[in-house]
Design a protein that fits this description.
The chain is about 20% helix and about 45% strand. By secondary structure, it is an alpha+beta fold. The strands form two sheets. It has a four-stranded mixed sheet with strand order 1-2-7-6, with no helix packed on it. A three-stranded antiparallel sheet has the order 3-4-5, with no helix packed on it. A hairpin with a 4-residue loop joins β4 and β5. The longest helix has 14 residues.
Length: about 110
């Protein structure tokens, strides 16, 4: 039986992201899949709201929640021990009260080798 892990990647600080991928790798069998989705750096909220800068492209908002905004290269590096089955930018524009807002997600499917 194959085992898959699906995660909307909300782990925000670099060491935590790296530890999470190590943990996912330890529980996945060879051939198991990891489904990834997270905010990308072109998202309208990346550095655009009142926030505290924690790390590169990582911000703590006024409510205390920490968000990280990924690049595809960063995701490739983070999952270097996996085969990349799919990795894509998903950019959608939303209109709200006559103003255009950009949402950017990075989605990927990775298989443990």
């Amino acid at each position: 039986m194959e085992f898959s892990v699906t995660e909307y990647f909300s782990i925000s600080l670099k060491k935590e992201r790296e530890s999470a991928v190590e943990e996912f790798s330890s529980i996945l069998r060879k051939g198991g899949f990891f489904f990834f989705e997270a905010f990308g750096y072109k998202d309208m909220r990346c550095g655009g709201e009142p926030s505290i800068h924690c790390e590169e492209r990582t911000f703590s908002r006024q409510n205390g929640i920490i968000y990280h905004y990924f690049t595809k290269e960063e995701v490739r590096t983070l999952f270097k021990g996996f085969e990349i089955m799919e990795l894509e930018d998903v950019i959608k524009e939303k209109n709200f009260k006559g103003k255009v807002y950009r949402r950017h997600l990075i989605k990927g499917i990775f298989r443990k080798t």
